[in-house]
């Protein structure tokens, strides 16, 4: 009991307690809001992709350009994989990776970046091609005409 009274009088004990409480509150808010942030980010990405797809769906040259961008990004990804594997075959580099695994993880980041860039472009091309098959249904495409506009008075 005496130890508790001594702890209540020290500044270090109070700082530790208040820091733990504050950290708990911050972590709780972050954990509660992460799903909302992720779903908002996902919806915004999908909206932007759909806007681009809708804008480009009838332009054949733009579609071919987007397809060629996706193919070239795949080639960059494949070449980065080949370069990384070639670099790994060099003996001093292998010894470096045996010494520290995190070095291997850090040096492989460009491969993952290239893969994400390629996959985003590939998803965009797929969405454009999916949108191209859809028909735009409006009054003009149905053949209906606003009768008031053509009435003569």
What would your notes on this structure say?
By secondary structure, this protein is mainly alpha-helical. The protein has a domain at 55-135. The protein is 82% helix and 0% strand. It has helices at residues 2-8, 11-56, 60-88, 91-99, 101-107, 109-132, 139-142. α2 (11-56) crosses α6. The longest helix has 46 residues, at 11-56. The termini are far apart. Keywords: Membrane, Transmembrane, Transmembrane helix.
Structural topology:
Elements: H1 2-8, H2 11-56, H3 60-88, H4 91-99, H5 101-107, H6 109-132, H7 139-142
Order of helices and strands: HHHHHHH
Helix content: over 70%
Secondary-structure-based class equals: mainly alpha
Q: Assign an overall shape.
A: flat
Characteristic key phrases:
single chain, 153 residues, mainly alpha, 7 helices, 0% strand, transmembrane, transmembrane helix, membrane
Structure, briefly:
Keywords: Membrane, Transmembrane, Transmembrane helix. The protein is an all-alpha fold.
């Amino acid at each position: 009991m005496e130890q508790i009274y001594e702890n209540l009088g020290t500044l270090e004990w109070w700082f530790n307690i208040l820091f733990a409480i504050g950290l708990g509150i911050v972590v709780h808010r972050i954990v509660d809001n992460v799903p909302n942030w992720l779903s908002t980010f996902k919806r915004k990405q999908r909206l932007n992709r759909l806007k681009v797809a809708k804008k480009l769906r009838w332009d054949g040259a733009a579609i071919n350009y987007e397809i060629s961008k996706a193919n070239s990004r795949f080639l960059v990804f494949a070449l980065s994989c080949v370069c990384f594997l070639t670099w790994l075959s060099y003996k001093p580099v292998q010894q470096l990776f045996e010494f520290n695994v995190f070095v291997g993880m850090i040096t492989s980041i460009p491969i993952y970046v290239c893969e994400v860039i390629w996959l985003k472009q590939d998803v965009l091309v797929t969405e454009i091609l999916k949108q191209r098959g859809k028909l735009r249904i409006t009054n003009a495409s149905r053949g209906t005409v606003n009768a008031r506009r053509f009435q003569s008075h």
